Amino acid sequence: MRIIGIDEAGRGPVIGPFVMCGVQLLEEDNSKLQAMGVKDSKQLTKKRREFLFAEIKTVIENHTLVIITPEEIDTFMRKGVSLNDIEAKATGEILSALSGDKAYIDCPSVNARKYAAQLKAKLDKKMELVVEHKADETYVCVGGASILAKVVRDREIEKLQKEYGDFGSGYPSDPKTKQFLQKNVDKYPHIFRHLWEPWERAAEEKVQRRLHEFREEQ
Q1: How far is it, in rounded angstroms, from Cα 150 to Cα 134?
Q2: In the chain, what are the domains?
Q3: What are φ and ψ of residue 15, in 5° steps?
Q4: 3-state SS assignment for residue 124
Q5: From CA 177, how far away is CA 153, in angstroms rounded?
Q6: What residues contact 165, with CB distance under 8 A and at least 6 apart?
Q7: What CA dihedral angle connects 167, 168, 173 and 176, to 10 degrees?
Q8: What are phi and psi of 107, to 5 degrees?
Q9: What is the C-alpha separation between 135 and 111, in angstroms, rounded?
């Protein structure tokens, strides 16, 4: 039987892209991924993920990536499309691009059954869907997809950092990211997610600082 594993990297950051990946492999090759230590990318060091990135590709038959830029996320969300719906759309594209009898998918929604039905409606072929929370910890094929997605996102972040400076991970909780955001909130619009609360707050704070400075000059 041929199976597919799907996972993402970068749902929550205020800086950088959202990356989704699907891997296609024969079910019996799951054991090969397990033997090489494939698991949820969050449980691995960066060095280990980079090593497994190449190794995974020697086992799987095919893979596909969907990279969603901050600008695309903003455009969707301004039209009322939620992040879960954006992820469902990308998952549908991955399922269409790969071949499999069964797909294992990490669920972003609190309602896994409803999300599974949403994905099922997007399918144009017969395929069993297993949609679960923390599927990247349960199914090694999903762990493999999470590693590929994470490495690709990390590489995209490194490209941005070379151009704009070290802003850390891009997550709002990262002190480097917070400092960079406060300093550059009105610059480099294509790297920020403008509908994220941290960006909106930083933008408002900058406006307030400018008003305060203006009043002091009067």
Answers
A1: 16
A2: 2-162 (3.30.420.10), 165-213 (1.10.10)
A3: -125, 135
A4: coil
A5: 16
A6: 180
A7: -60
A8: -95, 125
A9: 14
Residues 6+ apart with CB under 8 A from 207: none
Pairwise CA distance, residues 158 & 141, whole Å: 26
- Say which residues have a Cβ less than 8 Å from residue 178's Cβ, sequence separation at least 6: 172, 198
Q: Which pLDDT value is given to residue 24?
A: 98
Whether the Cβ atoms of residue 102 and residue 132 lie closer than 8 Å to each other: no
Task: Kindly report the length of the chain.
Answer: 218
* pTM of model > 0.90: yes
Helices and strands counted in the chain (H then E): 9, 5
pLDDT at 124: 85
What would the two tokens of residue 197 be? 């609360």
Question: How big is the chain by its Cα radius of gyration, in Å?
Answer: 19
Half-sphere exposure of 56 (CA within 13 A, CB side): 30
Q: ∠117-143-160 over CA atoms, to 5°?
A: 100
Beta strands in 29-73 (DSSP E): 62-68
Per-residue pLDDT of 117-159, as tens digits, reads 999 998 988 999 999 999 999 999 999 999 999 999 999 999 9
Q: Using one digit for the tens of pLDDT, what is the confidence trace for 74-89?
A: 999 999 999 999 999 9
* Inter-residue contact 20 to 90 (CB < 8 Å): yes
Residue 19 amino acid letter: V
